[in-house]
Amino acid sequence: MQTLLSMFHTFPLLAGAAFATLSISLISLVFAFFLGILVCAMGFSRSTVLRGLATAHVHFFRGVPLLVQLLLLYYLLPSLGINLSSLAAAIIAVSLCSSAYVAEILRGGFLGIPPGQLEAARMVGLGGLDTLVRIQVPQALRFTLPALVNEMILVIKASSLVSVVGVAELTRTAQNIAASTYKPMEIYFQVGVVYFLINILLARLGALGERRLAKAHQR
Amino acid sequence: MNFDPSVLTHNAGAILGGFAVTLETWIVGVLIGILAGLAIALLQLYCGRVVSAVLRGYIEVVRGTPFLIQLFFLYYGGPSIGLELEPVTAGILGLGIYGSAYFAEVFRAGFRSVPRGQLEAGICLCMTRGQMVRRIMLPQMLVIIVPALCNTIIVLSKETAVLSVITVPELTGVLTGIGSSSFAFLEVLVALCIGYLALVELTAWCGRWVERKVGRFMLR
What is the Cα–Cα distance from B202 to B26, expressed in whole angstroms? Predict the structure, then answer.
């Protein structure tokens, strides 16, 4: 009963914070997606320099913990004379980190397209751009959708680290409530439930999208 | 902004100590995770629907919530049910719990990839369940899952950085501490990146080596 009552009180706070978490994650995901496409394209480029840069990007952002990347941006940019709010630093850090994963996912998707199809496309006289838009991209997206949804869930979870630099999202709000109510167990349990529900919902939506795409493909 | 490595050399002892804590929490956490994950995968396989569903729920919850929240729940929430843990213990336990769900999924996929015919052959030879697990399933599965296993181990090595938030004196905690007291953020952050990159690349390299070594058992 006590827990129920406290849940009643904290719910509006947590709902607002959940919205902040979702916004940060979604904005970061959009950036990460486009940056990931760029890095993936660089990885397939003919230029050694571009390929090297893409490899370095992927190795660095996948090899260093997100927390360290976050601290790097948060502490180092001001000393370079760039003053960012903690929110901006957080979104940039999460985007950069996630873009490396997205690039690798997309790379896998493009490599998964049978080379015969590309040869066939050239045979029918499709140009490079047409091949990309009509043959490679649709299939690569279909192959990689499950992995991309998984990456979304990872980003939602990773966004909890943003609390460390003081962004008032779900985890930070939970810390504040826990500090003021002295009920850490209840609060963290509730917040865990919120994260879990968001992720379950995302996973379900992803599965739905996957089925849709599979059906569209069969026709 | 200039780079002054003396901050790092003066604190070399503390930094190495932090690295040791990172290694300790990581290795012990991974071992707990692997053992618990293997137990979960086996229980799911052999102990009926109810047990399997309960464990499925455990896996989903652990994988569906942020590691940081799990740590807070364990470390700050624990005392209210009488579970008072040292930061390092809480960190290792948290890492083990978090890893167990991921390892369980890796093992489950591994068990599923053992060809059915081999299990039927085992039954025909009157092998007991334990014999089949030990002599057929585990050896085959361990070869198949090496890449996924290494991947999870690498992910966990990076998660150890999060332990600094619950005041575990590991690499990130020690170095950012030095950074805030000396304002030498550039030096400590570069050192942090190099430390983790070296750890991750080295682990990935070991993983590929093991993969090559066990790879020949796959060629038949």
Answer: 14
Q: Which residue has the tokens 């799911």?
A: B44
Give the position of tokens 């990931």. Answer: A36
> Cα(B56)–Cα(B75) distance, rounded to whole angstroms?
24
pLDDT, tens digit, 9 for 90 and up, residues A149-184: 989 999 999 999 999 888 888 888 888 888 888 888
Dig out the tokens for A182 from the structure. Answer: 């002295």
Residue among A218, A65, A34 nearest B68 (CA): A65
Out of A60, A68, A189, the one facing B192 most closely (by C-beta) is A68
A174 touches chain B (CB under 8 A): yes
| Nearest residue on chain A to B59, alpha-carbon basis | A196
Name the residue ranges covered by the structural domains of chain B.
6-215
Distance CA A34, CA B60 (A): 29
User: Torsions phi, psi of A173, nearest 5?
Assistant: -60, -40
Q: Does A6 touch chain B (CB under 8 A)?
A: no
Distance of CA A84 to the CA centre of its chain: 21
Q: Which tokens hold the place of A188?
A: 């963290």
Cβ-contact B140, B190 below 8 angstroms:
no
Domains of chain A: 2-218 (1.10.3720.10)
Chain B residues in contact with A189 (beta carbon < 8 A): 73, 77
Cβ distance of A157 and B67 shorter than 8 Å: yes
Class of residue B64 by CB neighbours under 10 A (exposed 0-12, middle 13-18, buried 19+): buried
Q: Tell me, what amino acid is at A38?
A: L
CA-nearest residue to A199 within chain B is B64
The answer to whether the beta carbons of residues B100 and B36 sit under 8 Å apart is yes
- Annotation: CATH topology of B6-215: MetI-like fold (1.10.3720)
Walk along chain B (220 residues) and give the pLDDT tens digit of each residue.
677 777 777 888 888 898 999 999 999 999 999 999 999 999 998 888 899 999 999 999 999 999 999 999 999 888 888 888 888 999 999 999 999 999 999 999 888 888 888 888 888 888 888 888 888 888 888 888 888 899 999 999 999 999 999 988 989 988 888 888 888 888 888 889 999 999 999 999 999 998 888 877 765 5
pTM above 0.90, yes or no: no
The DSSP-derived string for A184-208 is HHHHHHHHHHHHHHHHHHHHHHHHH
pLDDT of residue A219: 57
How big is the CA angle at B84 (ends B79 and B89), to the nearest 5 degrees? 135
